[in-house]
Every structure is written in C-alpha cells, then in structure tokens.
Input
Amino acid sequence: MDIANELLAGSRLALSRAITAVENEYDTAVGIMQKLYPHTGRAHVIGITGPPGAGKSTLTDKLAKEYRRQGKTVGIVAVDPTSPFSGGAILGDRIRMNELTLDEGVFIRSMGTRGSLGGLSRKTAETVKILDASGKDVIFIETVGVGQSEVDIVKAADTTLVVLVPGLGDDIQAIKAGVLEIGDVFAINKADRDGVDRLNIELEMMLDLNQDMVDWRPPIKRTVASQNQGINELVATLEEHIKHLEETGKLALRRKQRTKNELLAMIEEQLGRYILRNINESGQFEQLVTSVQQRQRDPYSVVNEILKDRLK
Amino acid sequence: MEKRIRVLVAKPGLDGHDRGAKVVARALRDAGFEVIYTGLRQTPEQIAEAALQEDVNVVALSLLSGAHPHLFPRVVELVKGKGMTDVLFVGGGVIPDADIPALKDAGIAEVFTPGTPTSAIVEFINANVK
Amino acid sequence: MSNENLKAKVAEYNAKVEKAAAKFPERKNLPEQRIYTPVDVEGLDYDRDLGLPGSYPFTRGVQPTMYRGRFWTMRMYAGFSTAEESNKRYRYLIESGATGLSCAFDLPTQIGYDSDDAISTGEVGKVGVAIDSLADMEILFDQIDLGKVSTSMTINAPASVLLAMYIAVAEKQGVSADKLNGTIQNDILKEYAARGTYIFPPKPSMRLITNIFEYCSKNVPNWNTISISGYHIREAGSTASQEIAFTIADGIAYCDAAIKAGLKIDDFAGRLSFFWNAHNNVLEEVAKFRASRRVWAKVMKERFGATNPKSWMLRVHTQTAGSMLTAQQPENNVVRVALQTAAAVMGGTQSLHTNSKDEALALPTEDSVRVALRTQQIVAYESGLADIVDPLGGSYYVEALTDQIEKEAWEYIKKIDEIGGAVTAIEKGYIQKEIQDSAYKWQMEVEKGDRVIVGVNKFQIEEKPVEGLLRVDASVGELQKKKLADLRAKRDNGAVQDKLAALEKACQDESVNLMPLILDAVKAYATLGEICGVMRKVFGEYEAHVNL
Output
C-alpha cells in the first residue's frame, strides 16, 4: 500500500496505517511524513486538557458534533496513560464518542502514552499532521491530567482548552501553574454542580495575576456536556480565538515557534540516537559508566570526550 | 521498536452483560496490550469502523445472548471488507461447542468459552497475532 | 461459663490449633476466625436485633409461620422463541408443580425494539420470548387464568408497556386489574449499574417508575410494582455485602423519587419487593438474607418514617447464581443449585427460581428445567429445612456474620449517601467501579488457584461436547416479522396514530401519569417498538458511563 498517496486520495485505511507507522516508529514513517508534510498547516488544532473526571471526552464528543453540524470535518487524538507496570493501557475515550464512529466526517484515534513522554509529544504532533493532511478542518488533542506532560502534548495545538469541574476537591492552586498559563479558553464543565461560581471567581483571580495576556484574556465558559448545554457558545469562543490569532498574526508566530521547536526536538532526538548507537556499538560505554560511578572520572569530562570523538 | 498489540474489545448486539468483557480488558492491559473497549450495544458496522480507525491487531467479541451465529461472522466480514486482512478475531461468552466450527469457518480464530482463564486468552493472542 | 472465662478458653484453643496447623496447614483464603462462640455474639440483643418472624426487625423472617403454612413460590423464569413456544413451557411448568410464572423476554423486547427493527437481527427470541404487541401477549397467556396465577415479568425500561399488556389480556379474560397478582422488575438503576438493558436517561425513567407506583396503588393493589434487584449486581461480580448495600441504596432512591412525586411512603412501600442472588457460600448467603431484612426494616422505619408494618418488610424473590454454573461437567451444576436452594430456603426467600444444569451453555430444555424444579420440591418436602422457621438463627457464626454483613452494608450506604444518592453514584461510576474491582479480584483468585471451581481449575476432565441443548431457530425472527406485517395490516392504524400522538404529548408533561395512555396505545395494538419509539423521541436515550 502506498500509504501517503492513498491517504491523500481519501483512504481511511491509509490514514489509520499512517498513524500506526508513526506510533510504532516503522522505517516507512519518515517517508510517509515527508510526502504528507506539504499538505499540512490548514487545520485548526485544539488541545483539550484538564483533571480526570472533568468530562473531557464527553465534551469533545459534543464539540465535535457541533462542528459537524456546521459542516466541518473533525479529527480526534485521544491520549490515555500507559501503565508503567505492564506497558499496557485501557484507551477509554472512544467509548464516550460512540455516536461519532459512523460519521464519515470524523476520525478518532486513541493513543497510549507508552512511557516516553518526549516521544509522545512528537507522535501526537505527527498524528495531528496526518489528520491535517487528510483534510480535517478541526483536530482535537485530548489528554488527561494537568501536568508537564500534558503541557507538552498540547503545544501542538493552536488553541488550548482547559476543562475544569467544580467541587473536585482541588483548588486551582493544586493545578500546576503551567496548565493555567497555556489555557486560551477555559470551560467549567458539569456547571450544574455546587461550587461553580466559586471556581469561576478563583479562575478569574488567577488570570488577573497572569500578565502575559495583553490582548486576549482567556474567556471562562460554562458547560454541562452531558446535557449538551453551553456547547454552541464554547464552539463560538474557540472560533473567536483562532480568528484572533489569525488577525493579530499570532497564529503564524505560534506555528513558526512550534515548527522551530519541532525541528530542534527532531535534531536532538536524531543526534541522541546517533551518538547512543555509536557508543553502544563501540562497547566502551559500560566501562565509562562504571568509571564515573566509581568516581574515577567525572561525568562532564566523559561527555566532552564522547562528543568530541564523534562530532568531528 | 515501540509497537504494542492493540486490541478492540467489543460487545456486539443488545447483550448488556459486560462483566467478562471488562475483566478481559483489564487482564489484557495487565499483559501489556493497548485495549480499546467499545462499551455496549455496538452494531457490526460500528465495531468494524472502530477497528479500522484504531488499526487494531485483534478484535475480541463478547456475547452472551445467543446472537453470535449472526453477529460474529458479520463483524469479520465488515472488517475484512475495509481492507484489514491481518486482524486476529477471537470471541467469548455463552457459545455452545457445537457452534464453534461454524464461527471458525467464518474467521474467528478461537472461541473462549466460560471457565477459560484470561491467561489463555493472552497466550493465544501473543502466539497468533500478526 | 462467663464470657471472660470463655475468651481465655478460646485463646487456649487457638494456641493448640497453631500446633495442629503446622501438621495440617490450613487452606488459603479461609475466613480468619475458625470457630464462633457466645463471645462473638456478646452484643446481640434478641429483641432489638432478631425479634420473632413476622415482627420488626424481621431478621428471622417476614411471615410468622414461613414455609410451614405455605412454601415459597416455586417460580421458574422461562421464555424463549415465540409466544406460542413459551406458552407451552409455562403450561408444562404449571403442570409440573410450579406455583408462579416468571416471564423472560428477549433483548429487543427488553430494550423497546420490535422484532423487525434492524438492530434486532439475530436476537429475536434468543434470551426470552419476543413480544411485539398485545397480540403476542394474548398468545403467551393462552389457557392461563390470570385471575388464578401470579406472574413475575423481568422487564425494566419498558415495564409500563408490558404491565399494560398484561392488564389488557386479563381484561379480555374477564379478570379485573384489582384481582391481578404479580411483579414487574421495573428496576432501572441496576440496569445502569450492572445489567445493561436501559433505554431512557434516569430522570424520565424515574418518572415512569413513580407513575407505575401511583397507578398500581389505585388500580392494581396486589401487584408488586418493583423488584429491586441485587441478583444482577452480584452476577456482575460484587460481594455479598455490596449486593445488598447497592440494592438497598437503589431502593432508597426509588422511595425518594416517589415521595418527591407526591406519594406517601406507606401508600407504596408495602408493594416494593426485592430480588437476591443465592450464591455458593451457603452460610454467608443465609446471613446476607437476614442482614438485608434488618437493614431494610431500619431504613423504612427510621429513615422514611413508615408506620405500616407492611412497609418495613423486605419480601424477596431469589434466583440461584447463574454465574456459578460451569460449562465443564454440567451435571455438577445440579449439586450447586441444590446447595444454593438450601441457602435461599434457610435464608427465608418468598419466591425462588432455580437454574438448570445446562444454562452455562444455553437456555434449559424441558428435562433439565424439570430437575431444577424438582430440586426445590425435594428441599421443600424431603430435607426438613422448610419445617422450622429461621433454622440457623442462634448459630454463633451466622449471627456474627449477619451483623458483619449488616455493618458493611451500612458503610456502603453511607458512602453512597455522601456521594449524593444511588443515581449520582451511578452517574459518577462509583457503584460500577466497586463491582468491576470485585469481579477482577475474583477472577484473579480463580486463575491463581486460590479459589477452586470444581471441574474448571481443579478436578478437570476431558470434556465431551454436550448434546441436546435447546436451540432457538433464527427463523423466529422471520416469523415475528410476518406477524408484525399482518398486525399492521389488520389493525386500525388511525387509532394507533392517535393514541401514540396522545402519548407523546403526555410524555412532555411531567405531571401526567403515563399508564392510562400506554394502556390505550396497547389496546389499539400499537407495537412495543412504536410506543417506546415515542418515549425515546421525547426522553432521549441513556449514555452509559464506563470507566475501566
């Protein structure tokens, strides 16, 4: 199968196989991505993150339906944690989006974190590109959690939507600052519960403290996804954001920065692999490790030596 | 190589008994597979499309309502029809021995009847997945 | 001997036992304590905790003479294929000595779909009888006098419709609704939590249920309007304490809903009934039954302030545990069912269904269902277990275990209260997760060999395929489709449309009791799928919460 060309011709199987190639790091992956790359850059990418129990999958399902109603095609990448013990995962987001399965304008792919967070961010970004190349107008990246890994994952997004719920027991303080800073839009889901006003106020206060947002103050929307409430307004807000980015030129800036980061990350990764492969082949590495461990040598001079030797 | 075996655990038809499917899903996760559980009331069309989008290596069907003679082969047919020719199909539930040959003819590689330990399912998948 | 003295003796005994245990190491997974003495029931107050059968707190039974005057109803769950086939089986069971009927419906019927709906393909008549309209219902009860028989219908989301059909059939037989005896399961919360045949979301479902409570309290006063079920929760993998705790929490939610809808507790509580599992551990099951009666009595009296003693009584139907039947060496299942029957009888059930030996593989044949019925009859007439009321009362172990299970049940009920009640607990997935975790734990115990299942992980043989299993032909689907086509051709379609329109309008008004309108639609021969279709349109469908 000529995956890239068939994908561009509209094959869903090719689309799926392309994602697999990237996820499993097949040798064919780079070739596929090279062919697809010129066709990327069109989609509006929306990252959705927030603590477990916030109802992100249900919300994503409803948002996707509303976008579909507006005639847009949707891609969804749903990321779930891989068990550090077994290496396996239950990828449980799809189950909340059952009705979308047979909609030909929607493509949903579930991914496990597979233990390597750096790798995950890249794979997610590549999966987004694949969906982009297939012509999807809107692509959601849905992750669970509010930690650094989630921050990394949603860096592939143009708009980051942070979903919170009232009364989950944690204050905003408990949610790492990094997540609040990356939020372009906030949604308080399950807004029919107690504590919604309090949460709203706390959020506003935190946003007040953050001085970076000169011309875009992240709006706080309320939804009850399970009842389909607040969805239209939220979509409108997401649209406003991308429009804002386009009009102010920020979109181009963000994407350029992202491209830069991606290039650097790829260089780092390839370089690292090259060096590692090299030192492992030579067999010296174990000896060097032992000598550093036993304080016969220091790590700094060892690294210098390794690099000097290989980067002539 | 970062490959994981991806399994779709599906409940076709109207049967609402999911104790087995959930226990199997968990056991497969503990064995290192990536498991996508569809939930209840899946039509064969939904199962096949999910299998395609998730590019799974295994489709595991659970059914206790006696509707397996119709539904299992239909799922196999639809998945293969989408061009996914390397998928391993397995089934479980309330399935009399006498029905198993027909299911195997239709493409179900193995049927795990009541009392089968989850370890047997894991072993089978590991040995037979492509 | 004083309790202090006794404690010392027990300590002596335990010390001696350590030596014996070295020679004969005790098996894994046993309860920690090996013998129970008066020390373990020190705090027991006979009057407060046990009482006499037929009196609060009903620990020892809800009727004063229990089985001495009248055995539990031997009520065999049956139904498959067409109404004609099932009618034959019902008449066979009555001839064989069954004292009540219990209807099993197929999945399309349970989920409100007609046999000719696309989604019904392959499912028609498989797990129960296919009922598409009043016409099928009339056939189902052909030659069965609804004025004389008591019928339980395992139907939940569309319970209102099947009840309406039953009432309509009875009317045609000349039996007025106030003479009818029976039960509808009508327990939607456990569908969400464990059984999976839900249709509508919680709010409209609760409305239908309270509509039924109200309608029956006025028109069908001898009818059990709900069978609040723990059977399925247990089958899904829960423990014994969880079984009764989650069920009673569901019961509390139903009472709350009914009261909110304007009903008075004593007006409907007397017609609430329950449904327990009879599992393998005989003594634990007996204790569970006793604990459940005590907990419910307290809930009714103290929490809801019910004053009619009938409201305090937990009346229960029981089924032997289907999940404990093995496909391996199926004859062994007869023994399992016998033990489970003994447990249910010593536990004080009002009604009992016993599974057949082939049910790990298929629905039962006439022969195997007869053995299952005979099991009940042998226990009733030959074993002596039905001759004394609450025979295990006073056993140090059983009393201590009753207390223990009661305690655990209260803890779960409290937790669910803190979450906001059973409906919220289900929406949040709490109950489902507890059940799933218990199920997984059980399975791992079996796979490790810590829990022995005879014939499955110990004492296995080379199995021969089982012969003579019941098979439901795929042609049933075609037959039903034809019947539906004929029905639609013969009936007054204008009247049907009118009744459906009236129903749709009523659905939109929460203050209207839907039963009379459903009855109208049923009598006009609107199909189950059409009636439920209207309700689906107005109420929407439930979106399940799954968190693995």
